[in-house]
């Protein structure tokens, strides 16, 4: 796992180099997780392209994308630029969304997302399976919650141990604190804005992700069984393993 320093991004890392229970390691430059790409200027965009990213999957709801558009465009990409897809983790129009939003803990929010957004998550993981050659980058806004759920599914699928997945999730906290401090400084002198920031404190405890992985195991029989139940095929899962595991 390598942190990447791209202009205007705070929480980017390559998920390569992680051990698996099968004795292999995850492949570098294959799957990259990040925070929002809307702030990328030309240097940051070029760094992403030079890193070999061929597909960007935006996990945000279309309303969020409209407010902060990606640095990349839908449809036919410009020469040399990655293909860009919007595949939201959550359907904000669903009656289930209130249940997710009102969950009292992060772990419960994540497990409810897994339970209630199976078709959306299957579409996202399936998009990784059929993506063209090159790196696949997926992101939400902060790159912690929705991105963390997708990362856990992909890492768990290829056999990365729970403790390593939890450590990757927890790494977002330190990466996001500088952004949070900047937001606090921007809101200085505005008590209402400062109070509203409290729910954005970038907490990412490893115990949270361990609870999520335990839920997947106890309720579904593990990540692979969950993804199959959600509608993916063994062929699709095998394609992900092929692209994400070193030979």
Task: Describe what this molecule looks like in 3D.
There is one protein chain. This protein is α/β, with parallel strands linked by helices. It has one domain (2-244): Alpha-Beta Complex (Protein-Tyrosine Phosphatase, Chain A). The protein has eleven helices and six strands. The chain has helices at 42-50, 62-67, 97-101, 106-116, 118-130, 146-157, 162-186, 191-196, 206-220, 223-230, 234-244; strands at 2-4, 12-14, 31-34, 53-58, 83-86, 135-139. It has a six-stranded mixed sheet with strand order 1-2-3-6-4-5, sandwiched between helices. The radius of gyration is 17 Å and the shape is globular.
Summarize the structure.
This protein is of the alpha/beta class and 247 residues long. It has helices at 42-50, 62-67, 97-101, 106-116, 118-130, 146-157, 162-186, 191-196, 206-220, 223-230, 234-244; strands spanning 2-4, 12-14, 31-34, 53-58, 83-86, 135-139. It starts with a strand and ends with a helix.
Looking at the structure, what is the overall shape? Answer: globular
Strand content: 5-15%
CATH-derived architecture? Alpha-Beta Complex
Instruction: Summarize the amount of helix as a percent range.
Output: 40-55%
Order of helices and strands: EEEHEHEHHHEHHHHHH
Instruction: Please give the largest β-sheet.
Output: 6 strands, mixed
Which CATH top level class fits? Alpha Beta
């Amino acid at each position: 796992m390598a942190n990447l320093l791209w202009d205007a991004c705070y929480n980017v890392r390559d998920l390569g180099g992680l051990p698996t229970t099968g004795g292999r390691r995850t492949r570098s430059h294959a799957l990259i997780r990040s925070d929002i790409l809307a702030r990328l200027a030309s240097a940051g965009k070029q760094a992403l392209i030079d890193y070999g990213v061929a597909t960007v999957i935006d996990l945000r709801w279309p309303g969020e994308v409209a407010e902060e558009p990606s640095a990349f465009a839908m449809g036919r990409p410009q020469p040399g630029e990655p293909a860009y897809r919007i595949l939201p983790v959550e359907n904000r129009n669903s009656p289930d969304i209130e249940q997710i939003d009102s969950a009292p803990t992060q772990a419960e929010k994540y497990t409810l997302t897994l339970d209630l957004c199976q078709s959306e998550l299957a579409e996202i993981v399936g998009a990784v399976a059929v993506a063209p050659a090159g790196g696949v980058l997926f992101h939400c806004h902060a790159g912690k919650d929705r991105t963390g759920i997708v990362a856990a599914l992909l890492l768990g699928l290829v056999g990365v141990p729970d403790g390593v997945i939890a450590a990757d999730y927890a790494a977002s906290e330190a990466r996001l604190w500088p952004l949070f401090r900047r937001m606090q400084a921007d809101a200085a002198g505005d008590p209402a804005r400062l109070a509203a920031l409290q729910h954005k404190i970038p907490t990412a405890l490893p115990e949270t992700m361990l609870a999520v992985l335990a839920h997947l195991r106890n309720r579904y029989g593990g990540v692979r069984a969950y993804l199959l139940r959600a509608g993916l095929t063994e062929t699709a899962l095998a394609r992900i393993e092929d692209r994400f595991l070193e030979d």
